[in-house]
From TrEMBL:
UniProt record similarity statement: Belongs to the major facilitator superfamily. MFSD6 family.
Keywords: Membrane, Transmembrane, Transmembrane helix
Claim: Phosphoprotein is one of the keywords in the record: no
Subcellular location: Membrane
Any Gene Ontology CC annotation: membrane
Sequence segments annotated as region (Disordered): 502-535
Protein name: Major facilitator superfamily domain containing 6-like
Composition skew (Basic and acidic residues), residue ranges: 510-535
Residue intervals of the Major facilitator superfamily associated domain: 25-465
Membrane-spanning segments: 20-40, 52-72, 84-103, 263-286, 307-326, 342-362, 374-391, 462-481
Superkingdom in the source lineage: Eukaryota
Bilayer topology term: Multi-pass membrane protein
Pfam families per the UniProt record, alphabetical: MFS_1_like (PF12832)
The organism of origin for this protein: Amphilophus citrinellus (Midas cichlid)
Amino acid sequence: EKKGRGLISIKQIDVKQALAMAGSFNFLCSCAKACLLPFLTLYFRQLGLTPAMTGIVMGTKHFITLVWSPVVSLLSKHYNKRRVVICGSVVFSAAAALLLLLIPPADVQTQTCNTSDLSVGPTQSPADELLVNSTGPTASHPTRPLVSQSFVTYPHNTLADTKSPKEESSLGFLSSLNTMDAQHQLFFLILIIMCVWEAVSAPLEWNVDDGLYEYLDFADASDHYGSTRVWGVLGAACGVGGTGLLVSQLRCLIAAQTPRSVVHFYCYAGLAFLVFPLAISLPLYLNKKRDRTSRLLKAVQLVRGSPRALLCAFTTLLVGVANSAVDNFLLWQMQDHGSSELHMGLSLALALLSQAAFPLMAGRVSKLLSPGRILAVGAASLGLQCFYYSFLWGAWAALPAQVLNCFSSGAIWWAVKLQCEDVATLAAERSVGRVYSLSIHLGSGLGSFAGGFVAQSIGLTWLFRGVAMGLMVWSACLPLLQWKAPHQRRINYSRLLAADASEASDSESEQERDWLDKAMENDRSNNNNERRVNH
């Protein structure tokens, strides 16, 4: 049998080994992402992007994920190229991230410290590390180009002048960059690199999840699939906390004109190459009988046909909007109040660990509150967090609010999971869950675009307060709307199959007796009607 074509015998499947490899892969992959992605917008601020520009870049990133992940997942399954896509995504995403280090800042005043003092230690105050405010730096050299002037510099003679319209017009976008100021040149170069980066990294998660789930499902061990996600959360906490601690202990400049923030990129690339051997040997399986596109469309129809599922989808959309404000600009707000990478890393690590702790208390909480109420409590807790972020006063001020992540993000995803089980039919729970995941990305994309302009117009403080007020109003209206909406619970056949065999046989015998009784009654009524007609 050929493994490359997705044909695996049951003897070849080692469930424990597959779970160990999948857990290690998720741990290292999440650790690599957490080394860089939470600090990425902070690096954009250091280069000289405004909040509006940062919001556009991050919003574009979410929209690429929204569209590109399902498309590549479908194509990789159709052509049986999952492993190629996974390995290519790991390598090229690391290379694309390093391209950002080639872009110079838009303003020499946005350096992370005084370039004449290279002996500054880790005790330097965070206020001295970045000389910009929340609305972005003011370029002191607005005409300094980021693109080489060789594109538009030619000898001054008639023949050369005649050829130079033609050449400039053929260069197109690169030629137009030279006519822009330095900040807009920076913005478009970052946007291009981010589009390439997200295009190569977005397909990774879906392809790994599909291959691993189908591998475990082939061995009738799909119930162990959820255990691998815990390792991803733990890896993210280690990555963001460890990198924040490492960078905070370095001197302000690790080399001439090289800020210490580049360590985030090197850690990301280094861990990505450690993931590559696991990507090559990751247990995958291809079940060609499953049509993922039709399943996703059916999941959309299931969500659209259930009022409660629609309310849950709209809630996740608002949660995505709020998450975009937190992910994009929380570190800006912390930096304005004296936080360093140490405070930021430990704060974000505590949030992740707090989120992972909710399943431990979910049993008791679910006895007190219904899934709909848990969803409303999660939205209210997230709103309370955003409201707290608008009143930061010191370096460690954000730390207490991160404990609420247990009842915000943790509770929300637990309620979404229950909603998936409630609305989904046979083998459709994962597809319904992906509908809610895409709703999060849609909200994050819209929130990034809007949040960037709001932050630039009225400031970060009112951005967080506005998001908090919106979530609070929705969390108050959600229970009323859920009470008005009819409850359409579908039969979950996977639960019926897991029921006790004796109970199943008893219920089947009862159903057969009911069917026989109804058939005999119908037969008697038909005979009576025929006799009446004959008489």
